[in-house]
From TrEMBL:
Protein name according to UniProt: Transcriptional regulator
IclR-ED domain boundaries: 68-213
Classification via SMART domains: HTH_ICLR (SM00346)
The organism's place on the tree of life at top rank: Bacteria
Organism: Streptomyces violaceusniger
Keyword Lyase: no
Length: 213
């Protein structure tokens, strides 16, 4: 802590981080022990966070992250989209296919940015806001592969016909971006993804990751 920082705000943010790291919530006593402050301070922090819907307490008194955090999270998407657009434009133009940035939203993959190539006669229509299960489509499979840390993975996922008949996809996960799970990919109308596309998608994902750090 420095003279320019707020101790109370710092403690409140630490409470949110602690709650975000657990699936079963934390009691006042547990939070008190982890923060190194007395229970009265924790009660005040929780009461303030509850007023803003950032924390909720269940019947047993355990504190959990509240739904207000989702509202804050939605505001992150425009910032992430803006940072990713240069790499997506370059990818779409280079490959001649629709490029997209996809983030994890609960148990689904959510396309938050899409760029279509300008020079092709036709391409796959793929809109921002499109959702699909994480275990279907290249975008979700790339994210799951990164979660699993597969050492034999080539760094990208390839699929065909899983989300749209006749369409193939390639995607690579974002790496080293704190607090964000996602992937960068392309979708194209073809029976198989050309060999050079996989490595090109990996490069684009690395560019986006660098822009978000």
């Amino acid at each position: 802590m420095t003279a320019e920082t707020s101790q109370t705000l710092d403690r409140g943010l630490r409470v949110l981080k602690l709650l975000a790291d657990t699936d079963h919530g934390l009691t006042v006593t547990e939070l008190s022990n982890k923060l190194g402050v007395n229970r009265t301070v924790v009660y005040r922090l929780l009461a303030t966070l509850e007023q803003h819907s950032l924390v909720r307490r269940d019947i047993g008194g355990r504190a959990r992250v509240g739904l207000g955090v989702l509202q804050l999270g939605r505001q992150v998407h425009p910032l992430v989209r803006e940072a990713a657009l240069p790499a997506l434009r370059s990818l779409a133009e280079d490959v001649g296919a629709t490029a997209h940035l996809t983030l994890v939203d609960g148990t689904e993959a959510l396309a938050v940015a899409v760029v279509e190539p300008t020079w092709t006669d036709y391409h796959v229509a793929y809109r921002a806001g499109f959702r699909h299960p994480l275990d279907r489509g290249a975008a979700g499979r790339a994210i799951l592969a990164a979660r699993a840390g597969r050492p034999d993975d080539p760094g990208y996922a390839l699929t065909h016909g899983e989300l749209e008949a006749g369409a193939s996809g390639a995607a690579a996960p974002l790496i080293g971006v704190t607090g964000i799970e996602g992937s960068v990919g392309v979708v194209m109308l073809c029976d198989s993804v050309p060999e050079r596309v996989g490595p090109r998608v990996v490069d684009a994902a690395r560019e986006v990751s660098d822009a978000l750090r």
